[in-house]
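User: Quick sanity check before I run a bigger batch. Here is a single chain. Can you write out its predicted 3D structure?
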Amino acid sequence: MKLKPLSDRVVLKMVEAEEKTAGGIILAGSAKEKPEIAEVIAVGPGGVVDGNEVVMNVKVGDKVISSKYAGTQVKIEGVEYTIVKVTDILAIVE
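Assistant: Done. Predicted structure follows.
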């Protein structure tokens, strides 16, 4: 199944958190931090939303940081995705 976002929406997949610290200590599942960086999986067409022109500034494959509690989480075929508005994306990670 493929997700195709509408309007000014973007589909994100969270990047897995590190299992080791910088010092080489392996973390237990409960000690891992929630991932903050996500990969863009799909981008809506943008256009006019609520009377305002929306330009999509991200593309598939970009690594981004979004607002902490933004979006809607969905699980499709065992994979978790978050669907957010493009305005909820705070930065592109280079």
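The first strand starts at residue 9 and ends at 14.

User: Great, the batch can go ahead then.
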